[in-house]
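For consistency, the fold was encoded as tokens, as this record shows:
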Amino acid sequence: MMSIGWQLGPYELNRSGQLSLNGQLVHTKPLQRQLLLLLVQEAGGILTRQHLSETLWHGAPPRDPGALSQLIHGLRRLFERGPLGGGVIRTIYGQGYAYIGPLGVLPAPPSPVIPAQEQVGRQSVSSVSATLLRKEAWARWRYGSPLDLPEVVRLLKNSMVIEPQNAEALLDLCHGLLVQASWGMVPSQAAAAEVQTLLQRATVLRVDSTALASIEAEMLSLLCWQPGRSDALFASWLPEKLGLDRPLLSWVRHLVFSGQCREALKLLDARLQNELPQGWGLKAYAHILLSEFTQAEAALRQQMAAGGWQFSLPVQLAMVLALQGRSQEAADLVAQAGILDKGEPSGLHAMAAFSLIHGPRRPGAELLLERVVLKRWTQERWTGALSLWGLVALGLGKSGLATRLLATAVRERCTLAPVLLHGPLLDPYRDEPAVGAFEHRMARSYSATHKP
């Protein structure tokens, strides 16, 4: 039987580190979740301080030498407030730490896809499964890999089939489609059409108006290339007063992708915290567009410490290191991520390829680009993120291919094209005709709104 986690006595722990007690989520911090997973996965064995530190802080020692001890103490206090008690986390003097509490396997629930005509008759029977599907989607979303996004969207769609009136699931599905498009995993125009259909459906549900407007505004900015309309939608919100949640992140994402990076940083610097790792990633994007690569690196390293997607962080950091001329370090991080042969080519793969262009693993970038060309022009299957792949082609000296990729990126409204338009990534290739043609097309197709 497939397992989705562990039974710790009365607690349930899923494979993303999310802990629940009697069906209620237990609030834990990202590093606490990672630590608990490590201890439970090695239950009965001893994990040394060195191993835990290297794993939790990605090989770099924490700034505070007492950080691990504080983390262990916090995890113990969490269990002290529950039925197991803090003694389940044991210190083995001179050796390390161990989990010694009860342990069982948590079996995976079935994930049925129920035809629409069967919804009414099976609604009461399937409601629990819908909740579990959403929990699994949420865990994969926040603590998995961007390569899990197609599965996240599938889980959310299945939960909507079972509970078609669930407004929260509808918002999650809209957001999942937006994020999937932003990583270049689906065509922007197809994602926009699907999100628009869901928004129309939301009008008959009790959906929070601010959350709904944030989805619509983000769709207009990222997928429909109408950032001026997004500005108009957001203008009445007073975003400085919003909580650090989805609407605020939607607003920040719109600011970054429309070139308003200083405004985005102003909001993030005032309100960012470790409990929302995605915010650090957006901060890094803003610094990249401002050519502030050292600050971008710091933001990504902070996100890695806070917890987040396992593939994306090393790859994004590798891209920033490559922009600083640290090619060997960038290539090592790409190798560490282990992404080159995983999944369909996406924006994440394009970042990896860009990081390898000027380093010892340049042939790896050429192979990735060949996969993209093969997918697009022989199988007619859209891979997304064509603007970044155009940048990779420029770096590899393939001017003709770069021209075609960048032209197609504009025509298909590639979500990442505005990043090239507003940032410094094309600066080394200003003499290339492909760059001038791309900027000319973008000037006609994308009208970003800049605030004074």
Q: What stands out?
A: The first strand starts at residue 3 and ends at 8. DSSP finds 21 helices and seven strands in the chain. The CA atoms of residues 309 and 321 lie 19 Å apart. Strands lie at 3-8, 11-14, 19-21, 24-25, 89-92, 96-99, 104-107.
